[in-house]
Amino acid sequence: MSRSKRADARRRRRARWNRAGGLLVVPLAAMAGAAGAVVLATVPDSIHEVRAFRSARPCTLPGAAAADCLRTYPATVRGTAIENQGRSQLYLLKLDGPYPIPAELDMDDEVPLLKHLRKGDHVTVTVWRDYATAVTKDGVTQESTDTPEGLPEIQTAFALDLLTVGGYGGFAGATAVRRARRRSLPGWVALWGRWTMGAVLVSVPAGIIGYETGTGPVGVALLWLVLLPAVWLVVERLERHDPGRHSRRPAPSRAADTGTWLRYLQGRS
Length: 269
Prior knowledge:
By secondary structure, the protein is an alpha+beta fold.
């Protein structure tokens, strides 16, 4: 087989692989985008749930177990797990009790109650809907992390991530299919890929700040949009300072003499 035929065969194989990769990415991107839209559509329900939780009051009427109020159940401490070393933090309370008492409950901190609990202690667990929201013993109450608080912000940030990844994946996959015969994809594909990764990363602080400031999902989305230009500037700056393989001098031809190749390997012109 001649050199030109071998090169043509390599191009056809590369085109098939590029087309297959693009056809695989496009439906995955569509699934990510659809999942993002579904998650975003559930945010209003989560907001309503948080408002209902914040307005809930202790149940006062007999037979109000099914009502949307705060119920209490007796439970027994089965043990605790406390770790607070650097980034490894664990504040876990293990319980025995009737439904809906959970077997394990994350308390988020060891004070004011968790560190004083011992196996066999009798406690009272406050339950709202399916959430075990607090634990009480001898008049001391500690809230748990098992509440709907923060869920709308988390869902908003996650939905933005899915929509961003889905949009980028769709364009990149379609580009790979359209330009399957090209040796490489356009440079903007990698550039927008880095921007997508940055957009996903900044959704985390946007979600945290939206929750901490009480601005909710709207604050998360607005802060995320404000951070996107900064992400783009960082990506472009890194691209300008890291031109990569495209800035390398081409290697001498095979016909070049030994001296030319030696200067090339030594980095001299």
